[in-house]
From TrEMBL:
Keywords: DNA-binding, Transcription, Transcription regulation. It comes from the Bacteria. This is LysR family transcriptional regulator. InterPro entries: HTH-type_LysR_regulators, LysR_HTH_N, LysR_subst-bd, WH-like_DNA-bd_sf, WH_DNA-bd_sf. It comes from Oceanisphaera arctica. SUPFAM superfamilies: Periplasmic binding protein-like II, Winged helix' DNA-binding domain. Belongs to the LysR transcriptional regulatory family. GO terms for molecular function: DNA binding; DNA-binding transcription factor activity. The keyword Cytoplasm does not apply.
């Protein structure tokens, strides 16, 4: 058994296809299949369910995969720590972000790059559940979004500097927008909201309903970009999490805080809370704390 075989096995889990897994590992498909079969022969168990194509992993294969992910994580951390001993930090920081959290991590990324030019970043739009799964199986270093307090309690977390909700609007709606808007003030305005079923949308519907206001959006989308374009073109007003530089930096767009009860979930950055947290994740958190908690 060697590191490459474990890497091939994890690549097959990610790609769910022998050909794509081989391509991701820069080897041929016959080579990948042979090396995985060699691993099965060495362990004396079947790891992969095969038919005409990849059909999944056996129960034994799932258990081996879990161990393989941890071993690869420790191996990667070892290489990173050796580089850190030399005074450098290199590699790719893998981030998963809930899009509608509207987090602008550019200042953190810029400062990390200035300190460690060998770093690169991979940012994925994901649900909160997928982020937690990615942290668990070591396919992510950092997550960002809305999380329940009990989830944050078992992770290392860093709350966003600003919490709450703001309404973003263009010049066409300035005269109709109070300095401290309430839900009733927005009832007759064209609203741009997240799609039904998303956590932030469910939260908004609940708190507005408690104040006797039914949300009837003019536009609903799971794309932050689409919401930004709608606000920038004066098509409507968007309800967004507080602290979003994405909207405030749009020419002519203003954001005003909306007086609403706090969300059950907290906007935060998260990383693993155990010894399997990567050196890259710890370095990222150090810089985030420096900028968010000076």
């Amino acid at each position: 058994m060697d590191i490459k075989q474990l890497n091939y096995l994890c690549a097959l889990e990610r790609e769910r296809h022998f050909g794509r897994a081989a391509q991701a590992c820069c080897i041929t498909q016959p080579t990948l299949s042979m090396r995985i079969r060699q691993l099965e022969d060495e362990l004396g168990i079947a790891l992969v369910r095969r038919g005409k194509q990849f059909e999944g992993f056996t129960p034994e294969g799932e258990r081996v995969l879990a161990r393989a992910r941890n071993l690869l994580s420790q191996y990667d951390n070892l290489k990173l720590e050796v580089e850190a001993m030399k005074g450098s930090l290199t590699g790719t920081v893998r981030l998963g972000l809930v899009p509608l959290s509207c987090m602008d991590l550019s200042p953190i990324l810029a400062l990390l790059r200035r300190r460690y030019p060998g770093l690169s970043f991979e940012i994925n739009d994901m649900t909160a559940d997928a982020i937690l799964q990615g942290l668990e199986n070591n396919s992510l270093d950092i997550g960002g979004g809305f999380f329940e307090p009990e989830v944050l309690a078992r992770l290392n977390s860093l709350a966003l500097p600003e919490q709450g909700v703001t309404v973003a609007f263009g010049p066409a709606w300035r005269e109709r927008m109070p300095l401290e808007p309430m839900p009733a003030d927005l009832a007759q305005l064209p609203l741009c909201l997240p799609k039904t079923g998303m956590y932030f949308r469910r939260y908004l519907e609940t708190v507005f309903a408690r104040q006797g206001v039914t949300l009837q959006p003019m536009l609903a989308s799971n794309s932050v970009y689409r919401l930004m374009r709608a606000v920038h073109s004066d098509l409507g007003c968007a309800l967004i999490p507080a602290g979003s530089a994405l909207f405030t930096e749009l020419p002519g767009v203003e954001c005003r805080p909306l007086a609403l009860p706090a969300m059950t979930r907290l906007g935060a950055l998260v990383m693993r809370g155990d010894e399997h947290a990567s050196l890259l994740a710890r370095g990222f958190f150090d810089v985030a704390r420096e900028l968010w908690q000076p």
